[in-house]
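Hey team,

Filing this mostly as a record. A colleague (T.K.) asked me to run one chain through the structure pipeline before their review meeting, and I want the input and output archived in the tracker in case anyone asks later how it was produced. No errors, nothing strange. Just documentation.

Input sequence:
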Amino acid sequence: MRDVCDDAPVRSTPKEFRYAIALGADGALSTETGAGLVTAPEWTPEHLLLAGLVRCSLDSLRHHATRGGVEVTRSSAGASALVTRRESDGRYAVVEANVELADALDPKPEPDALAELLAKAERDCFVGASLTAKPTYRWRVD
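Output structure:
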């Protein structure tokens, strides 16, 4: 009789997530599903990047909280970035990013579990993970 562990390892394929947007001549943005977003001209690409970082961080927190049986009952957040020449290559880029998030969790995890939850939320926000300058997060949890 053959043991299951004797089988050759199965190569797993990582999940893939694909996103697309379109920018119309009128400045309106839309997703691949047609959902629209109209921004004021004062909203620069850098502002949209920060908005994406905040939304991604909160989505990551909600994902991990739900998996741990915790509900995120309220969230607010803000972010800031410094764009200047990088010392490494002389190109203008985000060299510093800060994210401040305030959340209410029910039930509120014990301190060690809360620290683990927040670490997972930071680690699994792909927008933050995609930045060369890793964001600094400051969490306030009620």
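Quick notes for T.K.: The chain has a mean pLDDT of 93. Residues 82 and 96 are 5 Å apart (CA to CA).
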